[in-house]
Design goal:
Layout (H helix, E strand, L loop, with lengths): L6 H16 L3 H17 L6 H16 L6 H20 L7 H11 L13 H10 L4 E2 L1 H8 L4 E5 L5 H12 L5 E6 L10 H6 L7 E4 L14 H9 L2 E5 H8 L7 E6 L3 H7 L6 E6 L6
Parallel strand pairs: 1-7, 2-3, 2-5, 3-4, 5-6
Antiparallel strand pairs: 6-7
Helix pairs in contact: 1-2, 1-3, 2-3, 4-6, 4-8, 5-6, 5-8
Amino acid sequence: MKAGFECMPCILTQALNTARLVTDDRETMARVMAAAHDYSRDMNLALTPTTLCTPLYRMIEELTGDPDPYAGMKRKYNDLALELYPEACKLLEDYPDRLHTALKLAVAGNIIDLGIGMKFDLAEVVAEVAAGDFAVDDYDSLQADLKTARSLLILGDNTGEIVFDKILVEELRPYGLVLTYAVKAGPIINDSTLEDASYVGLDGLCRVITSGSNGIGTPLAEVSREFREVFDRADIVIGKGHGHYESLSSSTPRPVYCLLRAKCSLVAASLGINLGGVAFKLIEPVAGS
């Protein structure tokens, strides 16, 4: 999907939220916001939102000298999700299809998006999403794919959310798949890294790799050879969150299931759902990608 005018104020909000975590020095804040303003004014709206946002966070790192502004928040939400994990697992018993419910629990954690600054009660969101329905649901297609698949790749997203992805991984293990989970190669917003995967115990359930980049979403021009080989060869790929949907929905070279909550009007419109709705949507390959 392409960016829109809605992305311009969002860029400024993300810059402000991030700068506040790093400093209370007004001069530094002014430099960050002035740079973000200039950047938002000149950015190319023909690009994807992820392509536009990644340079913003790299610019903020350069201006503040802090490579990981969300470090403390990431640990906080990993710990909160780990506290909720036992109760979330019990929800699997309340519904007839455990894998379908695990997908819902995995997308419930997608509410943890600290860059855009949404307020939420994680426990309430988990219970609400588990009991609800996907606004777009290509689960039947996934079930068909699972009958012949030998390998599956999950493109991880945020910290905290990664804990609920453990439930999804656990429910996929009986299918006898080679399971791989991909995280970022370095800090960007509150996205998960190898350290987070180890902290929540995900690396004990499946193979964990990095994308080779800290770019938001799946920046195929930046990823490592190892990641690209796994991405291309996996029988099934599931991308978690806005970033993977934004970066792949109009340019994916292969089918990708996108599992996300629509947290902005632009993404909601692209999916054809209401703001706040959750989707499990199969994105088909784009010619020429």
